[in-house]
Amino acid sequence: MAISARNGIKGTVESVKLGKVMASIKIKVEDPALITAVITKESAEDLDLAVGDDVSAIIKSTQVMVAK
C-alpha cells in the first residue's frame, strides 16, 4: 500500500470498541504510550481489526488513520 503520509507509528491493537457509526481503536506503541484512533465502524470492520493485531497509526495533519 502506498500512502502520502510520512508519520507512521507501528503498534499493537489493545482494544476495539464498535459504536453504531464510529469505532474507537486503542493502539499500544512504545511503552507506556497509547494512541486512540476514531475511525468509521465500516473501516474497522473492513480491516477486521482485533486485539493483538499489528497495525500502524498513520498521522496526517489532524487525523490518525489505521493501516493493517
From TrEMBL:
Cross-referenced PROSITE patterns: MOP (PS51866)
Entry GO CC: plasma membrane
Protein's cellular compartments: Cell membrane
Highest taxon of source: Archaea
NCBIfam families: Mop
Key words of the record: Molybdenum
Keyword Zinc among UniProt keywords: no
Domain Mop, chain residue ranges per copy: 2-68
Organism: Methanobrevibacter ruminantium (strain ATCC 35063 / DSM 1093 / JCM 13430 / OCM 146 / M1) (Methanobacterium ruminantium)
Protein's UniProt name: Molybdenum-pterin binding protein Mop1
A single BP term in Gene Ontology: molybdate ion transport
The keyword Signal is annotated on this UniProt entry: no
